[in-house]
Design brief:
69% of the residues lie in helices and 0% in strands. The chain is mainly α. The chain has one domain. The longest helix is centred in the C-terminal third of the chain and has 35 residues.
Amino acid sequence: MVFFYITHIIYLFIVPGLLEPICKVQNDAKDRRKRSRKMALMLYSVVWYTISTIWGYTILKDTDFFPKCLGGRGDIWKTFEEFPFQKEIPGMKLYYMANFGWHLEGLLKTLTLDGLRPDIIEMSLHHIVTCYLVGGSYLINYVNVGMTIEWLHDFTDIFISVIRFIMETKWNKMSLIVMPITLTFWFYGRICVFSHIIYVMHTTKVMGEEHGDHYIMNYIVYGVSTILCLNIWWGKVMAGMAISALTKGKIEDVTANF
């Protein structure tokens, strides 16, 4: 967390000014600086989510629980085999802790660096619930399914960050090409596949066993269900942005104008 926070501060001191020449707003210095800062944050996110996605896939691709629908060769139902004494997969816990640090820093950044953004309530709720889920699942060794969910969200976040970066540039009309791809991956991954994973988590026989972690696991299912509701909400917002862009020619990121 400390690493991400310090690098964010240094990064925001250097990079936004370098991006101002390609910002879509040039005649308003204050607005240009604000949008360039947003572009810098999205670029930082693109780099992290790309690294995290590649890193996570190299760990997950050969496991027997990473599902075929995500590019694996396993079955998501096997994620609970031998729980809670599951075999440790090399690199998984380091990946998990790195992402935990990213989410903790995301909450701190939302409250201290981002200012009063329009979606501060949704983002704060998302970060708080995610920190609970990642930290709690790590403590009870519920990391196999947790990492699958984490990887799924990291992968789709690449496209979200790319499109939000493009929408603030002079070439913002390119977002009309990226938006359908983003919405497709969002609906398939964050709503359809994620819903199936939650169903598996809720109905697996492990959930009904008394092993000391039963009640914690129930709250984890409630937590991921909260994230699913936020995913549906944000999907609706993005669909509205896409419709507005196609019908009115207005290409603007209304989710977080900071």
